[in-house]
Amino acid sequence: MKIAILGFGTVGRNVFRLLENVKDAEICRVLEQPGRITEDFMTSDPEEIFNDPDIGIVVDALPGIHPSYEYIKKALNAGKHVVSSNKAAICFGFSELAKLAESKGAALLYEASCGGGIPIIEEILRVGSNDSISRVSGILNGTCNYMLWKMEKYGMSYEEALKEAQALGYAEADPTADVSGFDVRNKILILSSLAYDSALSCDVPMMGIEQVTKERMEVFRKEGKCIKLMGISVREGASYAISVCPVVLPDTSLEANVASNFNIVSFTGDHVGELKLYGQGAGGDPTADAVIRDIKKILLGDAFLYERKFENILTEDASLLRGTCHVGGRILKDHVLSEALMEAKAQGCFFAFEP
Ligand code: HSE
């Protein structure tokens, strides 16, 4: 099958390289910016891709919502299968894009959008097909985890750690999405929507790592605790709560020991109990590997195995997420997370949740 790749950055380049060894896959076009066309197979005109009837799969390896979202729609409308690593674009038009794909009989797969190389979407869909999932949480941003790890274990400054994460290809083109929590917001919304079979669309209470300092980490370290940026969602009946924020964890927990660019994602099914998946959450190779797995599913005819229809209607109930909240220097026990987080935001001070 002929394949086109939109974007030739960290992900696109590695997909191109790994696809060379995939049987029955032929890369025929790569969309690249006008000043960067160096090969015959590259084009800066996306219409050449959408209008080519021989192209069966379009890989979206672009960053940010636009024009990725519009390109996904164009590819699906042209009846092409789409594989995307772009969490911002997928999250932006989630149920709409899924419905469009279904109406066109095309596959829309996005394993690489959440947790890099971790097969988390596949497992949530597989388990969710015969079990009811009530909780999803995890360390979902490799850049932030790398930064917090370097600050805690190596005494590195926030700025130095961010520079390293960028040099290693973990950070987004604009790292604001990483450090502000927006990237985790997109991922936890995608994973939770799939887990609960409902297109969640609330304004996610969110705090990134900008207020986390080495000094603050040291205070927790003396108590045998550490800070990790996490996405968390819970569902009870027809209600749900969701958030992204720094979380205080005991040093003995699995999450506390997730180092470097690694991610860990947990989800809980009524029957299976808690499952945890761990692996590299960012970087060219692991992310491209997840894209290749999706392409292979299409080539093997397995792309429609576990579809979600987003038929459940859930209502947000922020009070489902409560625990100890650290607001600046104050400790609020048994507090609703979102209320304390809003207070910290209004005061421009540090916030962390301790479940
Ligand atoms: N910037 C993202 C991260 C890339 O650091 O996790 C993977 O989604």
List of distinct ligands in this structure: L-homoserine
List the strand order in the largest sheet.
3-2-1-4-5-6
- Number of DSSP E strands: 15
Largest sheet: 6 strands, parallel
Number of helices: 13
Gyration radius, in Å: 20 Å
Report low-confidence residues grouped into runs of 5 or more.
Answer: none
Describe this structure in a few short sentences.
By secondary structure, this protein is an alpha/beta fold.
Helix and strand arrangement:
Layout: E1 2-6, H1 10-19, E2 26-31, E3 42-43, H2 46-50, E4 55-60, H3 68-77, E5 81-84, H4 87-92, H5 94-104, E6 108-109, H6 120-128, E7 133-139, H7 142-154, H8 158-167, H9 176-179, H10 182-196, H11 214-221, E8 225-236, E9 239-250, E10 262-269, E11 273-280, H12 284-300, E12 315-316, E13 322-327, E14 330-336, H13 337-347, E15 351-354
Parallel strand pairs: 1-2, 1-4, 2-3, 4-5, 5-6, 9-12
Antiparallel strand pairs: 7-8, 7-10, 8-9, 10-11, 13-14, 13-15
Helix pairs in contact: 1-12, 3-5, 6-10, 7-8
Bound molecules: L-homoserine.
L-homoserine is lined by residues 116, 141-143, 170-172, 178, 183, 281-282.
